[in-house]
Specification:
By secondary structure, the chain is mostly beta strands. The protein contains no helices and 6 strands. It has one domain.
């Protein structure tokens, strides 16, 4: 939406980044499992992420107690907007 993208992974955290300034805008605490997929809504006001087993330990690492969830994070205010004075393209 604003040239912002997210990173997430097996550590259970996600971060928003300004691609032009190559700067992290905001990081979030661990969510209780590996984040295996992320996506912003078309309008940029909702950030969705999936928590599930990431297969890093193969078939034998999966178990029925591992969380399987889809979470929605409302994007509020300027948490995904580039900071003033960042690099311009």
């Amino acid at each position: 939406m604003h040239g912002t993208f997210s990173t997430a992974g097996s550590d259970g955290t996600f971060h928003f980044w300004d691609k032009d300034a190559k700067h992290r805008l905001k990081g979030y605490p661990e969510v209780g499992g590996s984040i295996t997929a992320t996506c912003f809504s078309r309008t940029g006001d909702i950030f969705a992420y999936a928590i599930s087993y990431d297969w890093s330990k193969g078939y034998s690492g999966n178990n029925a107690q591992y969380p399987i969830k889809i979470k929605l994070h409302p994007v509020v205010g300027d948490e995904c907007k580039p900071r003033p004075g960042g690099k311009k393209r």
